[in-house]
Amino acid sequence: MTEWNIQPFLADDFHEVMGLWSATEGLGVGPGDSPEAIGRFLDRNPGLSLVARTDGAIIAAILCGHDGRRGFIYRLAVARAHRRRGLAAELVRRCIAGLAAEGIARCQVFVEADNQAAREFWAAMNGALRNDLVVFSIDLP
Ligand SMILES: CC(C)(COP(=O)(O)OP(=O)(O)OC[C@H]1O[C@@H](n2cnc3c(N)ncnc32)[C@H](O)[C@@H]1OP(=O)(O)O)[C@@H](O)C(=O)NCCC(=O)NCCS
What we know:
Layout: E1 5-8, H1 14-22, H2 35-44, E2 50-54, E3 57-66, E4 71-78, H3 87-101, E5 107-109, H4 116-124
Parallel strand pairs: 4-5
Antiparallel strand pairs: 1-2, 2-3, 3-4
Bound molecules: coenzyme A (COA).
């Protein structure tokens, strides 16, 4: 029997998902994480971001979108009690299928360098570690 229902992440889910993110280690919170910014992201990428529910409560979430050229996955989180059952892998598979259906050929994921669990997870998802890149950020006025 399936332990969870996977559904599109809707703007109305924001506060419940933020509760999950706040309780999750390894996720940096940045200026792109306001309800307005997340709502804009969801509007621009309809159906690609997902939540998983058990008994109506959100136990996992993933942000996924693209800019027409590259896909991006952000802020994947699974509640501790539901880990190591393949839920994150299923969310990622669905996101990748959604991006591929929109003609996207590569997806990038940003991981905090010291998040060893996430590094092992993404390696298990066939993610290629890019030792040839570093990330620069510019905060806008
Ligand atoms: C990383 C995370 C999303 C994994 O979720 P999950 O549902 O437990 O992952 P899955 O069960 O789908 O794992 C699939 C495979 O990834 C690898 N993996 C997952 N978690 C791992 C961990 N903590 N350590 C090592 N490998 C791990 C394993 O190979 C696993 O397969 P296995 O269980 O058969 O060994 C979850 O631990 C989490 O929410 N962590 C905190 C937030 C975070 O770091 N998010 C990633 C930011 S980019």
